[in-house]
Amino acid sequence: MTETTVGLIGIASLFLLMILRTPVAFAMLIVGFFGYGWLEGSRSATALLLTESYSAVSSYSLIVVPMFILLGNVSSVAGYSRGLYDAAFAWIGRFRGGLASASVIGCAAFSAVSGSSVATAVTLGKVALPEMKRMGYADSLATGAIAAGGTLGFLIPPSTGFVLYAILTEESIGRLFMAGILPGLLLMVLFIGVVWLVSYFDPKAGPRGAVVPLRERFRLLIEAGPLLFVIVASIGGIYLGVFSPVEASGIGAGLVLVMAFAQRRLNWHGFKEAIMGTLQTSSMLYMIVIGANILNPFFSVTHIPQTLGAGLGQLDFGPYGTLTVILLAYVVLGMFMDGLSMLVITIPIVFPVITAMGFDPVWFGVVAVIVIEMGMITPPVGLNVFVVRGVATGVPLTTVFKGVTPFLIAMVVALILIIIFPQIAVFIPNSMFG
Amino acid sequence: MSAYPSSAWAKYFARANLALAWLGGVCLIALVLVLAVGVIMRYVLGQPILGINEIVQLTALALVMASLPYATEHQVHVRVDVFDNMLGRWGRLFGDVLSRLISGYVLSLLTLRAWDKAMDALEWGDATNMLNLPIWPFYAVLAAGTALCVGVFAADILLLLTGKAESKND
Q1: Are B106 and A33 within 8 A, CB to CB?
Q2: What is the pTM of this model?
Q3: For A334, which residue in chain B has the nearest alpha carbon?
Q4: How far is B68 from chain A, CA to nearest CA, in Å?
Q5: DSSP 8-state assignment for residue B50
Q6: Which B-chain residues 45-104 have CB contacts (< 8 A) with chain A?
Q7: For B74, which of A30, A280, A381 is closest by C-beta distance?
Q8: CA–CA dist B135, B123 (Å, integer)
């Protein structure tokens, strides 16, 4: 049996295990361990198991994961996310669909402290959905804006997607974080455009809010100041080259903890909730990295990436044709798989093909993350849609899926723009790092 | 709160997971402090702490491995649930038991290897390069975390097979 055949059996086993409800991290661990053992012997496989697990959990770069998760969790528990939303609403609530637009801006701002789409959708959903319901917003627009806005959490730095991509491809986390800024802002603007268009054609879907006096607007902006300061200090610190991403994550988490305690926004119960939530999410993410670290050497010895690259080369689609095939495969996979799982399983196979075709690895990281984000709001899985449906009691799932459709089109537009103008993604990192 | 029913063994087991998770929590706060102090010493006082990376990396290791059993007990690991309906009740039960059996087997091998490595590191005095920190305790935490995780899988299988837990279609 050839190594490639063993690799294909491995991929089939991986999907079978996942269908049989094995957590993705453990499915990768199992297939990687047994597959590697099959080809290289059981002694090598057990040695790999220990060395890769140890190196994954002691990886310096990965420390941004628990730190930024803690930052997001404390911000949420301490109510800072509410402040972001209130400030955004005060400024743009009076416009058509203003409440939904404020939710999108709130999602984008919260994304700058949280690396998770789900966390962003849940946090802002709890704050904004009842308000939109009270104001008579259409359920489809309200839930669609939150589900789509939540996906910004995966793109705007600090993004767990970029951290995992960087670990898997050995690219710079700082570079990827910076590459996510402009595409994230572009997507935010496009989402606001969608809200405006929906409200323009159906004014009842997104009625205007009351005008908030200027003094009140500034008061709310100042109230949101502490979290905005943390965002500027941590992400701005990376941008200016003052901090490394790991240092920025530690400073961000430390600052928000100190602020929350100093302002008496965090009691023991909230603190415990933030800590335990951080530990659970961090363990889950690290376990995925361990699984990927065991699976990747197996894929390497099977030569699957090279075989796939050669196969795609023979199709003679050219670089952009091949890229389109890969992105379409991502869209299909995204309908059934969670974004992080999809990233760790596909990147080791796809990345060598992409770089061999001459595409910028950082640019592809942004493109891959946006396509994965699309998977978070496409049926039948659409994790963010389920999450928002969980918060918006009484709203049918079909209404939420209907609501996200225009936002999905906006994501396709953003993707096309970033493919045509790669500078949108690589301008900031290239101007910073050369 | 424990994810297990309130029998005596389950209570002690959940307490062990929780205690280890609290160790993870202490590591998390320690990590914030060490990183913050490192930045202040480096940028404000101009005196970088040499070898701070070693402290940070080993603390992160302890954080993750100490909280792994707690996270596994609360079933936070991501899984694909699109086919749950198609599998039916018995299919789900089969999948849940099978996945825990194989995962438990692989993790038990990791536990044994990590424990052996901890004992070797203790015997030979293995330490980090810069700060000369002994590395055996960290391999021991890795072994403890994965061992308790194996315990979580065993408990899950027991509960699933005795009907005290259900293969839920979520």
Answers
A1: yes
A2: 0.86
A3: B80
A4: 5
A5: T
A6: 53, 56-58, 60-61, 63-65, 67-68, 70-72, 74, 76-84, 87, 91-92, 94-96, 98-99, 102-103
A7: A280
A8: 11
Cross-chain Cβ contact A283/B64 below 8 Å: yes
Residues facing residue B134 across a β-bridge: B127
Q: Cα–Cα distance between A149 and A104 in angstroms, integer?
A: 5
CA distance A310 to A307: 5
Instruction: Give B-chain residues touching A22 at CB under 8 angstroms.
Output: 79, 95, 98-99, 102-103
Instruction: Please name the helix (run of DSSP H) or strand (run of DSSP E) that holds residue A392, with its range, or none.
Output: none
Q: Which of A32, A82, A73 is nearest to A289 (CA)?
A: A32
> Chain B residues with CB inside 8 Å of A253's CB?
32, 35
Considering CB atoms only, which of B32, B79, B91 is closest to A22? B79
Q: Distance between CA atoms of B126 and A25, rounded to whole angstroms?
A: 30
Tell me phi and psi for residue A206, to 5 degrees.
-140, 75
Torsion angle (degrees, nearest 10) of CA B125, B128, B130, B133: -70
Tens digits of pLDDT across chain A (434 residues): 888 899 999 999 998 999 999 998 999 999 999 999 999 999 999 999 999 999 999 988 889 889 988 988 998 898 888 888 889 889 988 899 999 999 999 899 888 887 778 788 888 888 888 888 888 999 999 999 999 999 998 899 888 889 889 988 989 988 999 999 999 999 999 999 999 999 999 999 989 888 899 999 999 999 888 888 888 888 788 878 788 888 988 999 999 999 999 999 999 999 999 999 999 989 988 998 899 889 989 988 988 877 877 787 777 788 899 899 999 988 888 877 777 778 888 888 889 889 988 999 999 999 999 998 898 888 776 778 888 887 887 888 889 989 999 999 999 999 999 999 999 999 999 988 77
The interface pTM score, or ipTM, of the predicted complex is 0.93
Phi-psi region of A274 (alpha: psi -120 to 50; beta: other; left: phi over 0): alpha
Please, are residues A115 and A153 in contact by the beta-carbon 8 Å criterion?
Answer: yes
Tokens representing A183 are 């595409």
How many whole angstroms separate alpha carbon A331 and alpha carbon A208? 35
Cβ B103–A60 below 8 Å, yes or no? Answer: no
Q: Do A21 and B84 touch (CB under 8 A)?
A: yes
